[in-house]
Fold this protein.
Amino acid sequence: MEDDVIGDKRENVTDVTDRQRAIINLMKDNATVSTIQMAEKLGVTKRTILRDIEALKAKQIITRIGSEKTGHWEVK
């Protein structure tokens, strides 16, 4: 799907798991979504979400703008 293309990071799209795609979609829908909310919606632990977020940050697909409490997610 073309909606799966994340910015100009086309080479990274194939390296993203289904759960990571779901996390990206949650962030696109609500930039202030918390890791706990993501974990509940996806039926996994907060630690699993954090691990996936770190992988997405390393691939430069997402960034966190601001603090953990009052910041928001940016999908590139």
Notes: The helical segments are 10-13, 18-29, 35-42, 46-58. The mean pLDDT is 88. The chain is about 50% helix and 10% strand. The first helix runs from residue 10 to 13.
